[in-house]
Design goal:
The complex is a heterodimer of chains A (402) and B (387). Chain A has 402 residues and is of the alpha/beta class. Chain A is built from 13 helices and eleven strands. In chain A, helix 6 (140-151) links the parallel strand 3 (132-136) and strand 4. By secondary structure, chain B is α/β, with parallel strands linked by helices. Chain B folds into two domains: 2-242, Rossmann fold; 249-382, 3-Layer(aba) Sandwich (Rossmann fold), CATH 3.40.50.920. Chain B has twelve helices and 17 strands. In chain B, 52% of the residues are buried. The chains are: A alpha/beta (402), B alpha/beta (387).
Chain lengths: 402, 387
């Protein structure tokens, strides 16, 4: 910096008024009303998903061309992607940030595409627990619960009075879901989680002793079975409200809006199944902290599959199930990969630095670890440009801080 | 090279010949042709410049100021409401001493909504510190923009080149387009000594206390006053190269005149013809065109009007509640000769009315005889008003 110059005469005055001084003395931070908060956030797609699927995480794998990992990541939250990919009202797409640019990512379409791939599973993946659970009814809630308990290493038996599994799903018209697709989805779920499915089962709750020997038996409200728990044997359990499991024979109940099965709300039933499974696991084995935690993709895949170059190349990914020529399949795969590549990965900072370049006070800076940005609140006026410019919604303006 | 072109096309050609580096503008009738032409010229690759289609005139001027502070030759154009929207930034440009050149197409201020000629839009910006030049014809538009860059970059002051809506913006005339090489000789690239430079950090537009504020303003006032002379000298240099004169004050038949008809803009062309007609009638009339309004060309005007006894000012503008703005200006400069001069101020030719030779002759007759159709309000006589 140049030395301070004192101007004594008019002739010394430069034509263009400028100064070598700074404005650092003027700490404009106290003008601020809203404060920018830069922190990782949940992406709007995941936030809106009833099943809480970490969508940007699997889209990232699709974008890499690693569709096997993507499918495993998806299955870890949603064991019936072929159904949600067709039936769900896809709130994941409602607030997609990409809408501001062109259009939302067709997440439902991608989910359906992934569901049609065949998964290469581990042979003996789970740490088995010495606990048995019987689920009466094979509707979406019961199957989902069975899946998550199976993946957590419990021995699960599903009893179905009908000759086919599916419960209320079997009542859906062919226009909504084709029988073959439903069958394939259930088959995969049963296979991955090592579930024992008994169809044409004779279920008599009054003669409780006839049921398979279990540590816990639960009634699936989506199983299509009119049954209630006999007095004194157990109780009613709401997976969204109740924490305690009320006995060894429980009837799962649902909030009013879910009591009559609606196909478009399929993800809510999957979420209810998962909630039930986690609480049952906590009851029988211990809290999730003591257990293995939530299931990840590693439990479904052979170790090498995650890194396999064969899987990283989309052109060699396995053919989707269904009709259509090979060329059509390749075209669809290309389209899906393109759509996944449009994901902005909302909620995580990728150091694009748009906030830094848009700050009129130059007070948004890279943090010391170069892992994100920080705001110099001594100077931030709270104008909100950084939050407006942030393409991933990492920066939000909040009425915070005293 | 001769070409038939509208005033707006002449303006775009001038900016191209001046090799402007940044064009930032928002379209408004009747200026639109200028920026459309420039966008096309830049798009074709005939001019190496950044074209910024901004969201408002305020931003157009702000970005021109930024570009000029970064050392670029910047150009913009606007009109009427757009110019009014720039107001804050006009002060900034002059205070920051950036040599931005802007074309303003003089259009009436709304409401009532009117797209036609009226000088109140730019005259209302009189005190922003901008130099104001009012063109008489399309050749004047082209040439004055080139002269303006040379003057602005030497004085470090912004210049507004004004042209009458439709009478000039959308009227086709034969213009002589100078050679690019000759223009390059006349107007070298802009190389400011003081500009935004990361290697030499400084702040522009910083806070200034009472200790220097008066001095800075005084210096700007002095530099602006001196610009009359600088313009005329530069115009002489331009004339030496291109053989066309564009001085700050232009006289027609004033050597022996008793009646001086004073105006700005395209009407001054009609005034010349009116002077001829009046002289045929035996009236010793002369025309006096104020090409420059800021700085007011004090020396040139006083010299030209030294023997004026009767002064008639035709204003295409009005300072409501006072009188025509040019009439006020002329009165103040003639103050020391107030005993011997008689001044009549007319407001005429606004909102689409033509200031034809006939109209001008009629107004002069009213000024001389004291009777006519123009209606008096305060000290101003209004033409084209319902009786």
């Amino acid at each position: 910096m140049q030395a301070k110059k004192i101007i004594n005469r008019l002739a010394e005055l430069p034509t263009m008024p400028s100064t070598i001084g700074t404005m650092e003395w003027n700490q404009t931070g106290d003008w601020r009303y809203l404060t920018p908060v830069a922190a990782d956030k949940t992406a709007p797609c995941r936030r809106n998903c009833p099943a809480g699927i970490p969508i940007p995480v699997y889209l990232e794998a699709v974008n890499r061309g690693d569709v096997q990992t993507a499918l495993a990541l998806l299955l870890a939250y949603n064991p019936l992607p072929g159904l949600t990919g067709r039936l769900c009202y896809h709130p994941c797409q409602t607030d997609c940030t990409r809408k501001k640019v062109d259009g939302p990512i067709p997440i439902r379409e991608i989910e359906r595409f992934l569901s049609e791939l065949s998964l290469e599973e581990k042979n003996n993946p789970f740490e088995m627990r010495d606990k048995q659970v019987t689920i009466i009814g094979s509707g979406p809630l019961g199957l989902s619960c069975a899946f998550f308990l199976g993946c957590l290493g419990l021995r699960v038996t599903v009893l179905e009075a009908n000759s086919r599994a599916g419960g209320v799903l079997l009542d859906l018209s062919k226009q909504k879901i084709e029988g073959a697709i439903l069958e394939n989805e259930i088959k995969r779920l049963i296979r991955i989680a090592h579930i024992r499915l008994v169809t044409d089962a004779v279920v008599d709750l009054k003669g409780y002793g006839n049921l398979p020997k279990s540590d816990l038996t639960l009634l699936d409200p989506t199983g299509g079975l009119e049954a209630s728990v006999p007095a004194g044997e157990g109780g009613i359990f709401d997976p969204f409200a109740d924490e305690e499991i009320p006995g060894y024979l429980i009837a799962v109940t649902l909030p009013e809006n879910l009591k009559n099965f609606k196909a478009s709300l399929i993800a809510h039933y999957i979420a209810a199944g998962r909630q039930t499974a986690e609480k049952v696991f906590g009851h029988l084995v211990g809290s999730p902290e003591q257990g293995k935690g939530e299931p990840g993709p590693e439990i479904f895949l052979k170790g090498e599959a995650l890194e396999s170059p064969q899987n990283a190349d989309p052109s060699t990914a396995r053919s989707p199930v269904g009709k259509g020529t090979e060329a059509e399949g390749a075209g669809r795969r290309k389209g899906i990969l393109f759509e996944a590549s449009r994901c902005l990965y909302c909620g995580t900072c990728d150091l694009c630095q748009q906030c830094i370049s848009s700050c009129p006070e130059a007070c948004v800076r890279m943090n010391t670890h170069k892992s994100g940005v920080s705001v110099d609140l001594d100077f931030c006026k709270g104008c909100g440009l950084c939050a407006y410019e942030c393409p991933r919604g990492v920066i939000t303006m909040e009425e915070a801080e005293s | 090279m001769k070409k038939v072109a509208m005033g707006t096309e002449a303006a775009a050609l001038a900016a191209t010949l001046a090799r402007v580096q940044v064009v930032s503008a928002y379209p408004i009738t009747p200026q639109t042709v200028i920026v459309e032409n420039l966008a096309e010229i830049i798009g074709r690759g005939d001019l190496e410049a950044k074209y910024m289609p901004v969201e408002s005139e305020h931003t157009a001027m702000a970005s021109c100021i930024g570009a000029a502070l970064a050392g670029a030759r910047a150009f913009t154009a606007t009109s009427s409401q757009g110019l009014a929207y720039m107001h804050e930034m006009l002060h900034y440009a002059a205070g920051a001493r950036v040599p931005v050149v802007m074309v303003n197409c003089n259009r009436a201020m709304a409401p009532p909504w009117n797209l036609y000629c009226d000088h109140t839009d730019s005259l209302a910006q009189r005190d922003t510190g901008w130099v104001q030049y009012y063109c008489a014809n399309a050749q004047d538009v082209l040439d004055s923009i080139l002269i303006a860059y040379a003057v602005a970059e030497e004085a470090l002051l912004p210049i507004m080149i004004n042209m009458d809506a439709f009478y000039l913006t959308h009227t086709s005339e034969i213009i002589d387009i100078p050679d690019q090489k000759a223009v390059d000789d006349f107007l070298p690239p802009y190389r400011p000594l003081n500009k935004l430079d990361v290697k030499d950090p400084k702040t522009f537009g910083n806070v200034c206390g009472a200790d220097l504020y008066s001095s800075i303003k005084f210096k700007r006032h002095s530099d602006t006053l001196a610009l009359e002379r600088l313009w005329d000298q530069t115009a002489v240099r331009f004339a030496g190269k291109f053989d066309r004169t564009h001085s700050s004050v232009e006289s027609y038949q004033t050597e022996d005149a008793d009646i001086f008809i004073v105006a700005i803009g395209t009407a001054t062309e009609a005034i010349r013809l009116a002077v001829d007609r009046l002289r045929d009638e035996g009236l010793k009339a002369g025309g006096l065109r104020l090409a420059m309004v800021r700085p007011f060309p004090m020396d040139g005007f006083k010299r030209a009007a030294v023997r004026a006894k009767q002064v008639i000012v035709i204003d295409r503008d009005i300072s409501l509640g006072a009188e025509g703005i040019i009439a006020q200006e002329v009165k103040s400069v003639l103050f020391d000769r107030r005993e011997e001069v008689n001044l009549t101020g007319f407001v005429a030719g606004i909102g689409g009315n033509d200031l034809s030779v006939e109209t001008i002759v009629t107004l002069v007759h009213q000024a001389v005889s004291g009777t006519g159709e123009a209606v008096r309000a305060g000290s101003t006589l209004w033409a084209e008003v319902l009786s």
